[in-house]
Amino acid sequence: MQALDMSNNCEQCTSSYDGKGRGYLYAVITAIVCPCHLPLVGLFLGSSAAGVLFAQNFFWIAIFMGALFLISLIAAIRILL
């Protein structure tokens, strides 16, 4: 019987992961939290408890989503380009 070689030699390992998956994830987040979609979010949440929370705190939600939009947009551009 031969012994199994369980060593992990990095010279033999080739990885095709280049970080593009994270860039695409940031791009999807950017598209979802885009401030132009706030009226649509309000329509979808209109008749629920989340809609009431959304309506009462619209200003703060808009500020948060705008900041998240900018952060994810910059991250997506830096990774993908």
Describe this structure in words.
This protein is an all-alpha fold. The protein has one domain. The protein has helices spanning 20-32, 38-44, 49-56, 58-80. Helix 1 (20-32) runs antiparallel to helix 4. The protein is elongated, with a radius of gyration of 22 Å. The mean pLDDT is 82.
SSE layout:
Layout: H1 20-32, H2 38-44, H3 49-56, H4 58-80
Helix pairs in contact: 1-4
Jot down its keywords.
81 residues, 0% strand, elongated, 63% helix
Task: Evaluate the radius of gyration.
Answer: 22 Å
Mean pLDDT: 82
Largest sheet: none
Count of discrete domains = 1
- Helix segment tally: 4
Shape: elongated
Structural class assignment: mainly alpha
Task: Classify the beta-strand content into a percent band.
Answer: under 5%
Percent helix range: 55-70%
Low-confidence stretches: none
Please tally the β strands and state the result. 0
Series of secondary-structure elements, N-terminal to C-terminal:
HHHH
Quick summary:
Helix content is 63%, strand content 0%. With 81 residues, it is mainly α.
